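Hi,

I'm pasting everything inline rather than attaching a file, because the server keeps stripping attachments. The sequence lines come first, and each chain or strand is labelled.
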Amino acid sequence: MTALLTVEAIDTAYGLSRVLFGVSLEVAAGECVSLLGRNGVGKTTTMRSIMGLTPPSRGRIVWRGRDITGWPPHRIARAGIGFVPEDRRVFAELSVEENLEVGARAARRGGRWTIAAVGELFPVLRERRHQRGGLLSGGEQQMLTIARTLTGNPELLLLDEPSEGLAPLVVDMLRDKISELKAQGLTILLAEQRVDFALALADRVYVLEKGRVCHTGSAAELRADQALVERLLSL
Amino acid sequence: MRRSASRLPWTLIVFLAMASVPWIGSRYDAFLAGQITIDALFAVSLNLLLGTTGLVSFGHVAYFGVGAYVYGILMKAYGVPFVFAFPAAGLGAALFAAISGYFCVRLIKLYFAMLTLAFSQIVWAIAYKWNAVTGGDQGLPEIPYPDLGWMSAIPGCGDLSTGARFYLLTLVLVAVALAILHRIVRSPFGRMLTTIRDNPERAAFIGLNVRAYQLAAFIVAGGFAGLAGALYGIFSRGVFADYVFWAKSAEVIIMAILGGMDYFWGPPVGAAALVWLNQQVTDYTQYWPFVLGSLLLILLFVFPGGLVGGVVAGVSRLQRIIAGRDA
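And the predicted assembly:
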């Protein structure tokens, strides 16, 4: 199995404060891989490092066999990595439709995820297409952010805590949508604090602790062993 | 009520009102109208950076000045006719914007603003000191009007003075320039600029080359500022180093904020308000900066959206009151 994305022993710091210490991980095509860990262990920083927003000071990031370490974020996006950040901010002053257009144009990648296609996936966005992005509810903004990223036709979707701050019903709906994307063959790297949410979707997991990978294995193993989950995540 | 109001072709009405000034207004009115027209273009060109892209330039006057000098030098030293010298002024300013902008967009926020200021001071220093080319502190006086004899053929224009004819030409050229800028702001390119203003990092990770777009906006804004500068040189019958002094950059920022930088038509309204107020106030007192400062203070606190923002807010409040009564 050749990896689509390989992160090789990266160190990343914000100024003088180091956050990641030799994090390595691999994502193969079609997989859903989850990064688990409590708040502040480096899940977001790992994603930001992959995306080029906070480039690592050591180590390499390899995408489809090419070293993309140090590339600017827009090049990484055009190479096929889509990022849905934690704060799920949409372009507040643009309408829903304009947000999607911007996503489609900026990435310069054609593909199956047209604006019409993401409207099929998230019918609520089609209904609200003329509404301003900033006026949507939290769940709708999350869907819009995912949909906007999809219109860029990424091969790998980085999802940072998609369930955070959403109502339980919305979380369930979102899980089904992500599961649908996975079933359609999209490769996903999912950072989550909610173990149940992540384990419902993931094939494999990496558990982070204080900026290091402290466990890696299949999701099935964790689903079967509650004690291991509790030990790893100190619940 | 709002429907009928917004259906009125406001831009056409304003254009026709401005165009009627040479016939119904005094020479002084025509002078003010000329100033407002040129400043409107200058302020809208700045607002492509300020309001649309979220870039605060403290040195926009540099491009206005480069345009004015390119036109002045071509006209005086080489006798190049208006039809070539005017576009050349815009191109010259755009070229200078490309060079200076290449460095400016590498910096962010205050550092960006400071570098734009630095470039404008360099332009000022060259204008002030390079006697052989710019005329130094003497400037380039007596820039002639372009040949406007052909306007006699237009009905009703036969009796107009050359100054009035040039005002009409200015009005038409500025209207065309504003129409182009309006299209740019509303185009997909303009929407990309808005995403950069909203959040440059987010724009980058959806795949936008933020610097390239910022540079493109910088070049377009500089080019149109250069066209405004060329018109101003002819309008004022000369090009002088004062035009490039940094205080004029502050003035054009004030125009944009006064009118409302979130609205396309905000800066022209701000330009009109500032020119008119300046004339009114200086008739009564020499303390114009004091009055301007006080007005800005009030405006920033009471109408943060500028004059246009204030009117929009007022109209929607009025509508709610009327709607409330009907219900």
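Chain A has two domains: 1-80+155-235, 88-154.

If the labels don't parse on your end, tell me and I'll reformat.
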